[in-house]
Amino acid sequence: MDRLLSFFIAKIYRYKAFQNFELCQKDLQIVITVPPICTKSYTTMLQNAFHFIGYTKRYSFVRETEAILQYWENKWDTEQGLSDFKKTTRLLLVNLRGRTASITALSTEDGTPRRLHTLAGGGWGGQAVNEEFKQFLIKIVGAPVFLKFVEEEESDWMDLKMKFETIKHGVKSEDDGKVSLRLPVSLREILEECCNENVQTAVQASPYSKKIYFTRDLMRLDVSIIKDLFTNSVEKIISNIKETLQIEAVTGTKTIIMVGGFSESPLVQSAVKEAFPDCNVFVPKEPAYALLKGAVMKGRNVEPQKASVTAVSKFTYGVHVCHINDEHGSSEIEKEETKIFFRKGEPISVGDKVTWKFTLETYDMQHVEIQFFTSPRTDTVSVDESEIEYLEKVRHDFDGLHTKTIKIEMLFHPFCFEKEVMQPHQFVRFL
After folding, report:
1. Which of 134, 173, 341, 363 sits at a 20 to 30 Å CA gap from 61?
2. How far apart are CA 259 and CA 101, in angstroms?
3. pLDDT digit string (tens) for 26-56?
4. Host domain of residue 392
C-alpha cells in the first residue's frame, strides 16, 4: 500500500513539475474517501502507509456519504428542484459504482447527516452488466473461443469493452430498433481457426439468430438484447431500495439521490424513477464524478483524520465493575455496579466520549474486574443475559488500604464501525 501511495504522490509532483509549478509536501492535502461502513483495520492500514512515506498530518478521511452530500450542496443543478431537496429531512443515497453498489439512508434533520442504515458491497453495479455481456458473447462464439480471445488479444478485448461501455450508457428505456457493434477481426479469426465457421454462422446457431443481422462486418443487434443485459442488475437495485425503504427507521423517505458511474445509464435512471413514482429521484449531470468532486470540496474544510457524520447505535454499550475480596482463599463480591454509556437507537458522533468515575475502599487481597460489553437490548441490561457480547476485560490488584477512584472512558474514534458492533476505545485509569 505504501508503494502505491508513493507512486501516485510522485506522479502528482511530476505533473506539477511539467507545468513549471513547484510543489512541496505542505501544499498537498490528501483526501481519502472511505465507505459508509469501514473497519478500523482498514483505516489503520491507510494511516500506517501514510506515516511510512512521511505523511503524518496532511491527509484526512472523508466518508463517501459526506463527500457526495457536500457536492450536492455546492454544485446543485437548479433545474432538478433545489427547493424540494433542501426541504428533505431524510434521503436515500444510491451509489452505483462499477463493481459494487451501496444504499445509505441518511437523516438531515439537525443539519448534520446521520446514517440510519447502510446496505453496502452489493455486486449489482455496472460490472454485473459487463458480465452479462461476456455471457452474450459466449453464447455466440462459445467459451473456448472467447477465453482464447481474452487471453491472447488483450488490447482487442479492451477495445471491445470500451465500445460496449458506450452502448451501455447510451441505451434508453424507450429505445426501439438496432444498435451497432463491430466485433474485432482477431475474434473472428480465432472462431474460424477453432471451429471452422464464421461469425454469421455462429450467430445463426445461437439464441439470438432472429435478433442479429450483419451489414458487411458490422453486427446489428436488436436493442432488446442490450436491455436484457441490464435485467438482473436493475432488479436487484430496485429490490434492495424497496427493502431499505421498508426499514422502520427509514420509512417515509421520499428523496433518492443516484451517483456513481452506473447511474449515468438512462436505462437505470428510468427504472428507478418508474419503480418509485412517489419519490423525488435526483441524478447529477456527471454522477460518476460526484464523489470525487465532493471529496475535494470536503477536504478543504474537514480537519485531518476527523469526520462529522453521526450514526445510530445498533447496540447498547456499557461497563460492569466488580470489586472482589480474595481473602480466606475464596472470592467474594464486595461491590458491583453496571453503567450504560450508550443505548441502542441513540445517535453516536465520531469523537463522542463518556466518562464515569467509580470509588472503592480497597485493601490487600482485593482486586477489581472491569468488563466492557454490548447488548442488542435498549432497556436496563443485566450482565447475566446470554445476549451480551464482551469487548474487553481489565483486572487490577490492590496493595494496601486506601481509597481508589477508577476513571473509565469509552471513546468512539473515527471510522470504528466494524460489521455490526462498533469497537470503541476503552480507557481505564486508577487515580
Report:
1. 341
2. 10
3. 666 777 777 766 666 666 666 666 665 566 5
4. 313-430
